């Protein structure tokens, strides 16, 4: 197995782990009843009704992230979603670094799956660019 294939597999594994986390660890709590749920959401400034809608968005983004054709747009949506999560945790006085880490890992995972993402983000001197006189 060559290095490129290993990197793509690593990207897919990371992508799957992120999506599973978003669906089962994060969104599922927005759909189920548990003790202290209303108080926790109120502390964050959200009603339970709104959190269900946020959970639906979270699941949709997680699924779209696993579909190669929609993964790039899903990564953009995920970054926006996680920005909102970060702001919510900051406002509530809670630790806010976890959504940032998830976002960074998601973009790394996508870049490993689709190397054009890294080329787009960081630029490159590919033969395609060289043939056209671009640096």
UniProtKB/TrEMBL annotation:
InterPro entries: DoxX
Keywords carried by this UniProt record: Membrane, Transmembrane, Transmembrane helix
Bilayer-spanning residue ranges: 53-83, 95-112
Principal subcellular localization: membrane
Membrane topology designation: Multi-pass membrane protein
Entries under Pfam families matching the protein: DoxX_2
Residue stretches in coiled coil: none
Lineage top rank: taxon: Bacteria
Subcellular locations according to the entry: Membrane
Gene Ontology CC: one annotated term: membrane
Record protein name field: DoxX
Organism: Symmachiella dynata
């Amino acid at each position: 197995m060559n290095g490129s294939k290993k990197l793509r597999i690593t990207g897919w594994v990371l992508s799957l782990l992120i999506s599973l986390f978003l669906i089962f660890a994060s969104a599922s709590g927005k759909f189920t009843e548990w003790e202290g749920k209303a108080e926790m959401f109120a502390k964050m400034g959200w009603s339970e009704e709104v959190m269900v809608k946020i959970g639906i968005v979270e699941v949709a983004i997680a699924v779209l992230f696993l579909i190669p054709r929609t993964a790039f747009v899903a990564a953009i949506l995920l970054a926006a979603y996680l920005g909102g999560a970060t702001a919510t945790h900051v406002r509530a006085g809670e630790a806010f670094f976890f959504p940032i880490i998830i976002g960074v890992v998601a973009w790394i995972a996508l870049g490993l799956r689709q190397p054009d993402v890294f080329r787009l983000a960081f630029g490159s001197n590919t033969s395609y660019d060289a043939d056209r006189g671009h640096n």
